[in-house]
Specification:
The complex is a heterotetramer, with two copies of chain A and two copies of chain B.
Chain A (H helix, E strand, L loop, with lengths): L7 H7 L6 H26 L14 H10 L5 E5 L3 H6 L4 H8 L23 E5 L5 H15 L5 E6 L6 H13 L3 E7 L31 E3 L3 H16 L5 E6 L19 H6 L3 H11 L4 H24 L23
Parallel strand pairs in A: 1-2, 1-3, 3-4, 4-6, 5-6
Helix pairs in contact in A: 2-3, 2-10, 2-11, 3-8, 5-11, 6-7
Chain B lengths: L1 E4 H15 L3 E5 L15 H5 L4 E3 L4 H13 L3 E8 L7 H7 L3 H4 L9 E6 L14 H5 L5 E3 L4 H13 L4 E6 L6 E4 L12 E4 L4 E5 L3 H16 L3 E5 L2 E3 L3 H11 L2 E8 L4 H12 L9 E5 L8 H7 L3 H13 L1
Parallel strand pairs in B: 2-3, 2-4, 4-5, 5-7, 6-7, 10-11, 10-13, 13-14
Antiparallel strand pairs in B: 1-8, 6-12, 9-11
Helix pairs in contact in B: 1-7, 3-4, 8-12, 9-10
Classes of the chains: A alpha/beta, B alpha/beta.
The complex binds thiamine diphosphate (TPP) (2 copies) and magnesium ion (2 copies).
Chain lengths: 343, 326, 326, 343
């Protein structure tokens, strides 16, 4: 695996708590919530209650948690099809996410978008995009608005390692750098594009970080399984963006525990790889971290229980939620609420 | 009233909207300091400054993506794609992103933006800089698509496009830039979705768009004076929304339909309209609806070839005459 | 004769051509070692090795550009674009480059390549992974465009596409991958440009493509058994070249035309065909030609909505019945 | 201007002639031929005999000459709209180039392509492409064929500084590097995209060279007004490609003396810039170089006269050449020679 510049033990050694207990507990809670909600989504597949495709972030929770915990409420997230984690991390109710995956009327978009397009504008989740790379330029535009209006919010754009090889990545990075836009590009390097190892199709070892210099940006590689490390890197990038310092490109090294999507048993992975990464499971690591900082077991257990209860509640609500009504099929194509292309 | 070129009408239309609304911003390649490669945006940079009129790298995906992100979050961007042929390098934004985000988000996201572009043939630029690609956009649900034929409409439709809450693709015809027309003083704002009968007639309906409008009009004159065929010419102006009322109304009166399309034949806008008329006004028709188009070929560069590729006044008149007299 | 899935027919078709001609090479995302995300290319990497079956980065422009450069210089590449929606990120190659290079070079350059892609709805993938975009290609001069509806045609048309000296866009329907059909043993090679009458009938012609073929057939059964309306169903198979002889011949016999299109309405392939029939067979028609299409909307993800968006057997039957009985 | 790593005086100082007189004379002749033919094209505009647009390489001749002189006959060139120079440099007759610009029947493509699409397959000029960036992936494909067939030819792809910011550039560079393709990407940095200085819209100083590392490639900047420097850099890149060493990205610093295209008076250039660059006119520099190496004035003058005569001849032939016949309008859309899309 890649060299990783920030590791948990360093912080723990001196117990120099730059992050603080409240934030640590929040980082933990977000990770657990993503884990539980996504595992539930997987169970619901098996019951044939989730239709279509679905791309889970199991194993990658620390990235979503670290960036979300460091965000301010007005900041805007731009996600991919693998966007459940980032959507939940912004505080979107579990019910609305699972409802969308189950294509029910209580879903975030009442089933019209589906698992790959989670959007909750009121929480700053400005869409999940399923064309690889498309949202990087879009995030630039949101950042442009902030710059133009003198607003202090930041646009944060999450994507995978494979995305670094498509044209839109390059155009967005250069554009953001030249216009000094308050946008953060977060590459979640989980070592694979769909089924192909990123190393097989990329000319550099770190597909994002090793290209930062091409846009005049510093090289940043973070341990993406360590929520504290991500949180610190995120904080620095937000501060830079809010100070007018322009964009950042942050590569987070991580791993997905399951296949690319629902259809994928992930047989292409070399033996032992999954186990190695599971040993560094971000939630397991973070539970140890909390203990190192003296958080009591029962506090942790209470969070776990609370999250599980909320996931259970949400599941029940979704199971009994109605299907979307047929008449929304032709609604909201245009701003007038309809789809009329003629008079 | 003043006489204005189509080219200058573009700048006046943009200026009208930028002066009205500080959230209107404008970006594109060479559009700011240089005033645009067609000189259609001269003076805007000086008038509205570098924060509102911005030069970009040669990054069409970034241009349209940035316009979309800005539109989603509160601005009203106008993006220029220099030649409409270049839609092919940023087509994802046109076809998959801003056309669909309102629907996919169940109405949560909006995209009030305008993409302006230089469209069409006549400049001897060859196959990659001369295309008429209105149908590339008409076929995508979620877009609005307009194509003015004269300076007044440039301003009126551009204003309507900027004020519209949906993404609008605005086709300027490169060969019309130097043409002149009378333009009223003061603010001009049209509604999207209305066709205009630019020549009333009783024997046949000729539908035309952009550069084909003056040609259809000239053909109508020939047909009238030389053959006594009295054509109604309709400037379609807006492909989406489409003013089927005006079109069907005209056909109901004339009983014959001809489309005059600059696009290569297959799946052009005329096909769509013929299919609507054939379905809904079948019993109004006294004879087959006929499409007059550029043949289904890439465009040649040579003037002598390009001139015969597009529907000419002669070809239009001859085709209509033949159909009407058979 | 063997029963084969449409999915397996893809791999067999590619294998047939790769075994025949060592200049046939195959590239795309996850197509080699992983056997394709639809498992339609399983075994090819093992059979033909890493030099002929190559995984690429997520770089659709590079994929199609490389296919073009290889085709120009002597290879016969097959490129996979995983979902046809992604044509939007590499549309320049489709619309401006390999479609036009022979013409622009006055015949000096050739582009014998095939672009295979997963097209169409039914998988509940939502608006960016479900589109039917045959018309995106049909409208571009210089391309050939085919869309098989069954395993046998997959092999025959794929072979024809690979052997064709022009660029061919090959639409595989995602919802047909698991469907089965009888396939003869041995080499299968079709000609491009021929439609097939898959059900003869005398009262009306139903034109359909890909997934709409089985639906049109089912609707024809209903119409016959419940309403005594005897429909001829034509599998269009090839949009370019278009077999207008078969189509016009059928309409000349039945006097009524219906198109069954999965694409959203505007500028779909059916519009083009209706405009041809309306012009050339106007006096053959006993009533208005009717298009049955997906409404002009992006596609929803939810099964309950997606199922009613596309033309269903019921909607097809009902629309035809209404038109025939009015 | 940029730092330039290879300068004429170095070679001249020791008079260490690694290039040789025959090649030097060829380099000179190619440059003069481009200069004269393009100036003639400009004159023909003024007489309204060249229609449509036209993009000249006046001032950039050394790049075309250096790469062409180092090429082998089977190598393949991929050019842009600014491709007259590279087309002539491959030995395509002047008449056929001017004929195409004048849209006559004797033109390379009988007027069907026009000035932006010069193609001469028999000379290895595999097309000129007018969509910025499009031909970089295409050149990869030609190189892939060479690699697959075990052929030793190289694909060479010329483009401008502005082209480095479009997505296709990025995709092609990564693709070529990963597949180790025998392709050379030649960026002619003439400091401007269309009318906008490249520095205004690019995040790095050297738009090509400063991005080479993003594809695992070495950084190469060459004095593009010095044909010898270009020739040497080209030779090294060809050797690498033929040896299976994969692609190169070479940035040549140069300047166009006229506007971007026929329509452009180039008023956006700062005062004195053109003069500064004209002082380093590649042909003037090269004439001095030849003298330093002892080539007699009359040898140089004979080349000049010969080229001028050939340009004059070609011009006369073009002026009297017929226009293309109307029936070619619908020819060669498909391989059967026609345009039939139906039966
Ligand atoms: C333009 C485009 N090409 C291909 C795809 C198909 N696809 C979906 S996800 C994916 C892999 C993306 O890999 P990466 O960026 O590493 O993200 P990850 O899925 O690993 O989070 C591919 C190839 C797509 N959606 N869009
Ligand atoms: C995709 C695309 N965008 C924009 C253009 C318009 N255009 C033509 S040349 C050019 C400038 C190219 O600059 P550069 O790459 O530096 O090449 P130069 O013209 O300086 O040789 C532009 C913007 C185009 N042809 N294609
Ligand atoms: Mg990945
Ligand atoms: Mg330049």
């Amino acid at each position: 695996m890649a060299k990783v510049e920030d590791r948990a033990p360093a912080a723990a050694a001196g117990l120099n708590d730059d992050i603080g207990e409240a934030t640590r507990l929040r980082l933990y809670r977000i990770q657990v919530e993503i884990r539980e909600a996504e595992q539930r989504a997987f169970d619901l597949f098996l019951q044939n209650l989730v239709k279509g495709t679905s791309h889970l972030s199991l194993g990658q929770e620390a990235v979503a948690a670290g960036f979300a915990a460091a965000m301010k409420p007005g900041d805007l997230s731009f996600c991919t099809y693998r966007g459940h984690a980032h959507t939940l991390a912004r505080g979107v109710p579990i019910e609305k996410v699972l409802g969308e995956l189950m294509q029910r009327d209580n879903g975030l978009m009442r089933g019209k978008g589906g698992s790959m397009h989670l959007t909750s504008a009121e929480h700053g989740v400005m869409g999940s995009y399923a064309i690889v790379g498309a949202h990087l330029p879009i995030a630039c535009g949101a950042a442009w608005r902030a710059q133009y209006k003198g607003a202090k919010d930041v646009a944060v754009c999450f994507f995978g390692d494979g995305t670094t090889n498509i044209g839109a990545f390059h155009e967005a990075l250069n554009f953001a750098a030249v216009w000094k836009l308050p946008v953060i590009f977060v590459c979640e390097n989980n070592l694979y594009m769909e089924y192909t190892p990123i190393g097989d199709v990329t000319a550099v070892q770190h597909p994002a970080a090793d290209r930062a210099a091409a846009y005049g940006l510093p090289r940043i590689v973070v341990d993406g399984n360590d929520a504290d490390a991500v949180y610190r890197a995120a904080g620095a990038a937000y501060a830079k963006a809010r100070d007018g310092g322009g964009p950042s490109l942050v590569e987070c090294m991580t791993y997905r525990h399951s296949g690319h999507s629902r259809a994928d048993p992930a047989k292409y992975r070399p033996e032992g790889e999954l186990e190695k990464w599971k040993a560094r499971d971000p939630i397991k690591l973070y539970r140890e971290r909390l203990k190192q900082f003296g958080i009591a077991d029962n506090v942790i257990a209470a969070i776990d229980a609370d999250v599980r209860r909320r996931v259970d509640d949400a599941t029940e609500k979704c199971k009994t939620a109605p299907m979307p009504p047929r008449d929304i099929l032709t609604k909201d194509v245009y701003a007038d609420g309809g789809f009329a292309w003629r008079n | 009233m003043a006489e204005l070129t189509y080219r200058d009408a573009v700048a006046r239309g943009i200026a009208q909207e930028m002066a009205r609304d500080p959230d209107v911003v404008f970006l594109g390649e060479d559009i700011a300091k240089a005033g645009g490669v067609f000189k259609a945006t001269v003076g805007l940079y000086e008038q509205f400054g570098p924060l509102r009129v911005r030069d970009t790298p040669i990054s069409e995906q970034a241009i349209l993506g940035a316009a979309m992100g800005a539109a989603m979050t509160g601005l009203k961007p106008i993006a220029e794609i220099m030649f409409s042929d270049f839609f092919a390098v940023c087509f994802d934004y046109i076809a998959n992103e801003f056309a669909k985000s309102r629907y996919m988000s169940n109405g949560q996201l909006k995209c009030p933006l305008v993409v302006r572009t230089g469209n069409g043939a006549g400049s001897r630029f060859g196959a990659q800089h001369s295309q008429s690609v209105e149908n590339w956009c008409m076929m995508i649900p979620g877009l609005k698509v307009v194509a003015p034929s004269n300076p007044r409409d440039v301003i009126g439709l551009l204003a309507a496009a900027v004020r519209d809450p949906d993404p609008v693709i605005f086709f300027e015809h490169k060969s019309l830039y130097p043409t002149k027309g009378e333009v009223p003083d003061g603010e001009i704002v049209d509604a999207l979705g209305s066709a205009k009968i630019v020549r009333p007639g009783k024997d046949a309906t000729l539908l035309a768009l952009a550069l084909m409008v003056p040609r259809a009009l000239a053909a109508a004159e020939t047909l009238k004076s030389e053959h006594g065929i009295d054509c109604e010419v309709v400037d379609v102006r807006s492909l989406v929304p489409l003013d089927t009322q005006t079109i069907l109304g005209s056909v109901a009166r004339t009983h014959r339909l001809f489309t005059v399309e600059e696009n290569p034949r297959l799946c052009g806008w005329g096909a769509e309209i013929v299919s609507i008329v054939a379905d809904e006004a079948f019993y109004d028709l006294d004879g087959p609806p006929v499409r007059i188009t550029t043949p289904h070929i890439p465009l040649p560069a040579a003037d002598i070839l390009e001139d015969i590729a597009l529907p000419t006044v002669e070809r239009i008149a001859e085709r209509v005459r033949k159909a009407m007299q058979s």
